[in-house]
Design goal:
Shape: globular
Mean pLDDT: 95
Strand content: 5-15%
Helix content: 25-40%
Distance between the termini: 38 Å
Number of domains: 1
Low-confidence stretches: none
Number of strands: 2
Largest sheet: 2 strands, antiparallel
Order of helices and strands: EEHHHHHHH
């Protein structure tokens, strides 16, 4: 199925969904890619201060059920860290991501946009790079396990929130 994207950051971008929704089995096998949270779960928990996808709710790119309990700010509103699960700001600006070369033209919002589109069935030439970045972020789990009592959400909340931004369920550690 072809998807045509028209939102605040991309107009006329087209991609194909070649896999069923939520079927990551090919990436699990090829790259050992095992995210712990779905995009819907991440949006419901509260990520990116509710700002990341607030302008795509009214588009047809993603399933409508992703938005039912999503914690989002209104379009044009600044991010609100209190909407994040851990109530803290754990983001760096998109400009910083761009300066570091972490975003691509196909996914100008960065990793989470890549993940949402991949979860929805798109496969792209950027899969290997993005999965490598995801796996590298796992190092933060090691720090939680080493320094925080299990389930103590007051221990390293920024690090826990950042892990949620990368589809790791930091409530488990």
């Amino acid at each position: 199925m072809e998807v045509v994207v028209n939102n605040a950051m991309q107009v006329g971008y087209r991609y194909l969904r070649t896999r069923p929704m939520a079927d990551l089995s090919d990436l699990e096998e090829k790259y050992q890619f095992f995210p712990e949270l779905t995009p819907k779960e991440m949006l419901e928990l509260g990520v990116f201060g509710g700002k990341y996808f607030n302008d795509v709710v009214e588009t047809d790119e993603y399933p409508k059920e992703w938005w039912v309990n999503a914690k989002l700010v209104g379009v044009g509103m600044p991010a609100d860290p209190s909407l994040n699960f851990f109530g803290v700001d754990a983001s760096i600006s998109l400009r910083e991501w761009e300066e570091k070369g972490w975003v691509s033209d196909q996914d100008p919002r960065g990793w989470f946009e890549w993940y949402a589109r991949t979860f929805a069935g798109r496969r792209s030439e950027d899969d290997e790079r993005q999965i490598r970045r995801h796996r590298q972020f796992r190092r933060h789990i090691t720090q939680l396990v080493k320094y925080c009592p299990k389930g103590d959400f007051t221990c390293r909340p920024r690090q826990r929130q950042a892990l949620l931004h990368w589809a790791y369920d930091s409530r488990r550690y």
